[in-house]
Amino acid sequence: MIYIHVPFCRSFCTYCDFYSEVTPKCHRKEEEIRQSEAFQKYVQNICKEIRQRENEIRASILSGVDTLYFGGGTPSVLPIEAFKEIVSCLKGIGVQAPFDEFTVEVNPEDIVEKGEEFIRGLIDLGVDRISMGIQSFDDSMLKWMNRRHSSSGAVEAVNIIRNAGIKNLSLDLIFGISHLSDKTWEETIDKTIALSPEHISAYQLSIEDGSALAKLVQRGKYEEADDTLCKRQFDVLCSKLSEAGYLHYEVSNFCKPDKHARHNSAYWKRLPYVGLGPGAHSFQGDTRSWNSQSLERGDVETETLSSFDKVVETIMLALRTADGIDFEYLKTNCNKEALDNQLSEGNLVIQENGKARIPEDKFFISDLIIRELI
């Protein structure tokens, strides 16, 4: 598994705290030159890191999940030539398409601007999956989130992606916003279903330190949504997507049959992965490391996980999925009294076919259930 972090955005979303650099649309020649130089420097650094970490990258591919994922940030701000150089560099160390899954994250406005040619260029490199952040189909909500696209622009972007030949499309949504009405949320779900993506990720809004949203909260200009509203919107999401034939295979993720995200699913199984680029994280079973959040510096920090850390991660990640976890493993490594209570009272955890899992109607409180177990 290889993850490549692209730390560039045209603007910062209200809720985001990921590391990225603003690259506004260029209006003058000197701005275009500076942006081009920044992209070139980024690609050079990624290729340098690929060569330095060749053995680690090859080992991660041999772990059983051969996936490549460009995330961010906003990968779609990069020119197609940047993708070509990075993919070529990976090929130079023996890592190349076809991958089990090759995903690129995009934003609607970039797709509308660059058109089908850009998507076809990605397909030529081996990309077979696109993940697009739509978040809402309500223009007022998009404006509040500081998204640059409109509802109609999102639909246009989906059509461009489909016409170019992508058959595996994932769309991201956000709920649990205090001023998001149930009606607006239901309309967003319905419009998403009408576009028939193979995969849907839906996240409850969280207030992250350092984000613009956190500053709004501090100034008293935003109040976090209460659990009643969030649960109601989550339940509507689950119900509508189930009726439309989507499988709820992880707390925040839904898919059509056999269209789960192979890359992300490997995270939840704690399989090794290599993260390239500023701010990217890597995992090797016993250790976790992360790159500095800088385009210039290549510092890396590492932590060694204790036996307890590994047990906690295994339980926490597995119980977020519909597959669950081996029951004997859970029984041996968790708070047994809490497990007995959850099995007997309210079916918070279900035991079947040698597995323990949290049922879908309790997914909303999965964090609480898991916390009690560990």
Beta-strand segment tally:
17
Kindly report how far apart the N and C termini lie: 28 Å
Q: Segments where pLDDT lies below 50 for 5+ residues?
A: none
Percent strand equals 15-25%
Average pLDDT level? 92
Oligomer: single chain
Radius of gyration from the alpha-carbon trace, in angstroms: 21 Å
Summarize the main sheet. 9 strands, mixed
For the biggest β-sheet, the strand order reads: 9-10-8-7-6-5-4-1-11
Tell me, briefly, the overall form. globular
Range of helix content: 40-55%
- The helix-and-strand class reads alpha/beta
Describe what this molecule looks like in 3D.
Helix 1 runs parallel beside helix 3 (80-92), helix 4 runs parallel beside helix 6 (151-164) and helix 7 (182-194) packs parallel to helix 9 (227-243). This protein is α/β, with parallel strands linked by helices. The model has no long low-confidence stretch (mean pLDDT 92). The strands form 4 sheets. Strands 9-10-8-7-6-5-4-1-11 form a 9-stranded mixed beta sheet. The chain is 43% helix and 19% strand. The longest helix has 24 residues, at 29-52. The radius of gyration is 21 Å and the shape is globular. It starts with a strand and ends with a helix. It has 14 helices and 17 strands. The chain has helices at 29-52, 54-61, 80-92, 108-124, 139-144, 151-164, 182-194, 212-218, 227-243, 262-268, 307-318, 327-333, 336-344, 366-373; strands at 2-6, 8-9, 21-22, 67-72, 101-106, 129-135, 169-175, 199-204, 247-250, 253-255, 274-276, 281-283, 287-291, 300-304, 325-326, 350-352, 355-357. Strand 4 (67-72), helix 3 and strand 5 form a beta-alpha-beta unit.
